[in-house]
Amino acid sequence: MAYEAQSVTRLDPVWSRIAGEAQDAVVTEPLLGGMIHSSILHHPSIERALSFRISMKLASDEMSEQILREIADEAFLADPGIGEAARADLVAVYERDPACERLMHPILFFKGYQALQAYRVGHWLWMQGRRDFARFIQMRVSEEFGIDIHPGARIGKGIMIDHAHSIVIGETAVVGDNVSMLHSVTLGGTGKSDGDRHPKIGSGVLIGAGAKVLGNITIGHCSRIAAGSVVLEDVPDMKTVAGVPARIVGEAGCSQPSVMMDHLLAGRDPLG
Prior knowledge:
Keywords: Acyltransferase, Amino-acid biosynthesis, Repeat, Transferase
Strand order of the largest sheet: 3-6-9-12-14-15
Protein name: Serine acetyltransferase
Helix content: 40-55%
Mean pLDDT: 92
Order of helices and strands: HHHHHHHHHEEEEEEEEEEEEEEEH
CATH topology of the largest domain: serine acetyltransferase, domain 1
CATH superfamily of the largest domain: serine acetyltransferase, domain 1
Low-confidence stretches: 1-9
Organism: Mesobaculum littorinae
Shape: globular
EC number: 2.3.1.30
Strand content: 5-15%
Radius of gyration: 19 Å
Enzyme class: transferase
């Protein structure tokens, strides 16, 4: 296994760096050595490590770690895009969250990242028609992490969910690439009607803490939503909205709000 891991890491710079960080961490914090070995150093790739980590976190008396691990391995093998998204999400967290000091930290400690990767496995099951198992994954993610992402939602890559507590993303929601959102964000509906009823979030959007985006509306690319806002109408590209109900209060302030993570309005009032 060690030889296999070395062979893979030479081809994957992200996993190579994670493995190096893990080796250093075992030396500096030996009491975590067992967890770091089992979660990272025993695996040849980020896909295998995530399968292990997801299965360990979501296992319960109702579903064994082994079955969940086999399901996750199957998903990663069948759809290489899941692993690509996992890498993009990892780099997004590392680059945008100053609390993330090492690439390995989200895999080990950050519930937003872990929940998102578990959702990706659940979404794969959903798209395969295995909807009951997908709902089981959704349930366990909600119970374990306090994050409720419907497996039918479509979420791009390069996503950062910071702090992540009480995130809700509905069934027909669409989230573009390179989106950042903070805790207590809701991408929800406005009633009990079925059909296409949830928001469509463009790429590069920054969503502040506690924001509620409701209904089948479109949030334009590279826009910003202030903390605590309730958004009920479409938002154009590269605008900032704030308030209850939210209104346009200015430009986005930069070309990539989700990357810059600038939560201040032009007058320096906080977004969140």
